Amino acid sequence: PRLAALFPTFPVFVYMPWMFSSLHLRLFSTFFHTWLAINRLVLLALDLGPLHPRLPLLPFVLCAGLPIKVRLHQQQPTKNQASSSSSSSSPPSAEFLRPCARSVLLLSCLAMAYPYTRWLPLYALHYLYCVQIFLTLDLVFSSIALVSAALMGASLERQFSTPLAVTSLSSFWGRQWNLMAVDLLRESVYAPVRARWGRDVGVLAAFLMSGLLHEFLYWYLTLQQPRGEMLLFFMFHAAFQIAERRARAAGIWRPPRPAAYLLVTAFMVVTISEMFFAPFVRAGTDVRFTEETTAMVELIWGTRKYLSH
C-alpha cells in the first residue's frame, strides 16, 4: 500500500529534468529527482533506506529529494565531554564552508585556464574535465548540505572524500566518490544480491545498475539514443575492481602508494576518456558544459564586484 501511494510521484520525478534547458540543472535534476528521490521512496516502501514515516516534514522532504544524509552519532557524549565541547562546537553547516570556497576558487582558475589548454594532450584535457566535474559536484552538494544543515540544525555527512587522491578502484568507488549514490546502491542492489549470490555478483549488480542510470543520464543530457557505452564503462570497472581485490588478497597487487596512485589515476583517466567522455564529446556536451561553467563563474565574480562597490 505504501508503494502504491508513492508511485504517482514517480512520473513527475522522471519528467522534471526536461523542465531545464541548462545542462547543469538537468544533470542535477536527473540525479536528485529521477534517481535519488525515486530510489529512496522505493526503499521507504520496503522499510529500508534513510527515510522514515515518522520524520518531520522538512527533514523528510530534504532527505528525500536532495543528496544529503543525517550523520548518525555512534555514542552519546558524556556530561563532561558535552560541557567542554558546548562552547567550542561549531554549527552543523560549518564543515561545508571550506569545500564551497575551495571549489569556487579552483573552478575560477579552471575557467580562466581553459582558453589556453588547446595545446594539451587529450588525456590531460580530460583529466581537467574530471577535476571540473568533481569540483562542480562538490560545490553544488556542499552548498545544498550547507543550507540543509542550517535549516535542520543537524550534522550531515560529506558527499565526497578525496577522489582525486585515488590509490585503488575499490576505494574510489566504495569510499571516495559520490557517497550518497554509493549508500543507496549498497542498500538497494549490492546487499540483497550479495546475500543471495555472493560478493562478486553483488559488485556486478551494483555497477550494472549504475551503468543503466548513466545511460538515462546520457539520454537526458544529449537527447540522443544511448549506445550502451555507459553500461560498458561501468561493467569494465566492475570487472577490474573484482580482479584488483582478488589480486590484493593473493598478495599479487601491492605496489607502493605513489605507484598505485599513478597507475590507478592513469587507468581512470584513460578509461573515462575513451569510454565515458567519448559519447558526450561526440554530442558536443563537453563544450556546452564548459560554456555554462565559464558563464557561471563570470556571474559569481561579477556579483561579487557589484556587491563590493
What does this protein look like?
The protein is mostly helical and 309 residues long. It has 13 helices and no strands. The chain has helices spanning 2-6, 9-15, 23-45, 57-65, 79-86, 97-113, 122-152, 169-176, 179-197, 199-222, 229-249, 257-282, 285-308. Helix 2 runs antiparallel to helix 3. The longest helix is centred in the middle third of the chain and has 31 residues, at 122-152. It is globular, with a radius of gyration of 21 Å. The N and C termini lie far apart (58 Å). Residues 74-89 have low confidence and may be disordered.
Write the layout of secondary structure elements.
Layout: H1 2-6, H2 9-15, H3 23-45, H4 57-65, H5 79-86, H6 97-113, H7 122-152, H8 169-176, H9 179-197, H10 199-222, H11 229-249, H12 257-282, H13 285-308
Core attributes:
globular; 72% helix; 13 helices; mainly alpha; 309 residues
